[in-house]
Amino acid sequence: LEKMTDLVAVWEVALSDGVHKIEFEHGTTSGKRVVYVDGKEEIRKEWMFKLVGKETFTVGASKTKATINIDAVSGFAYEYTLEINGKSLKKYMENRSKTTNTWILTLGGTDYRVVLEKDTMDVWCNGQKMETAGEFVEDGTETHFSVGDYSCCIKAVSSGKRKEGIIHTLIVDDREIPEAVE
Questions:
Q1: C-beta of residue 45 within 8 angstroms of C-beta of residue 67
Q2: Helix, strand, or coil here: 98?
Q3: Which residues contact 23 (CB under 8 A, 6 or more apart)?
Q4: pLDDT tier at 30 (50, 70, 90 boundaries)?
Q5: Cα 16 from Cα 31, distance rounded (Å)
Q6: Structural domains in the chain plus CATH codes
Q7: Span of the secretion signal (predicted)?
């Protein structure tokens, strides 16, 4: 494996199916452009005469659209920005924290990352979309699923405040799991 000598940028992108690593090589003398997602080469272009521009590819199980923008800053300096679904990475992650809940937990010595997509109520665990069963309960809803031998439940209850909306809580074997901040 050749060494990544032209590596100019590395980003970590948290999606429902996991945290993905995006690496970008830009040969400013050869014009080479290489994009890796989770260590796998997605795009390779050798000898590009135009040193600025963009590369678009997909990330993760849901094939989320990602674009690397290459802009000249001054002389031979370049700036690399990553967009996810047409938004800057920062904006995308801020919006994502409003549309998803994430919990990181260890069960029986194994680490799990559970993600709830609030708009669809889809639940993901370590990159797999989970089979769930939803039910209405007295104070809201419960979404049940299993992780290994553990029964899990995401409770959705109204906060009673319009600005806060619905509060989602993950409960595993009667234990409340604190939400993770990514």
A1: no
A2: helix
A3: 4, 7, 9, 10, 35, 36, 39
A4: confident
A5: 34
A6: 7-90 (2.40.128.180), 96-177 (2.40.128.180)
A7: none
**Structure-token pair, residue 52:** 């600025």
126-162: pLDDT as tens digits = 999 999 999 999 989 999 999 989 999 999 998 888 7
* CA angle (66, 62, 116) in 5-degree steps: 110
Instruction: HSE, CB side, 13 Å, CA atoms: give it for residue 139.
Output: 11
What does the pLDDT average to over 43-62?
A: 91
- Residue range 68-108, pLDDT digits in tens: 999 998 877 899 999 999 999 999 999 998 899 999 999 99
DSSP classification of residue 87: E
Cα 11 to Cα 57: distance, rounded to the nearest angstrom: 14
* CA atoms within a 13 Å half-sphere pointing along the CA-CB vector of 156: 16
Alpha-carbon gap, residue 159 to 38, rounded angstroms: 38
b (16+ CB within 10 A) / e for 99-129 = ebbbbebeeeeeebbbbbbeeeebbbbeeeb
Find the Cα–Cα–Cα–Cα dihedral 118, 122, 124, 129, rounded to 10°: -160
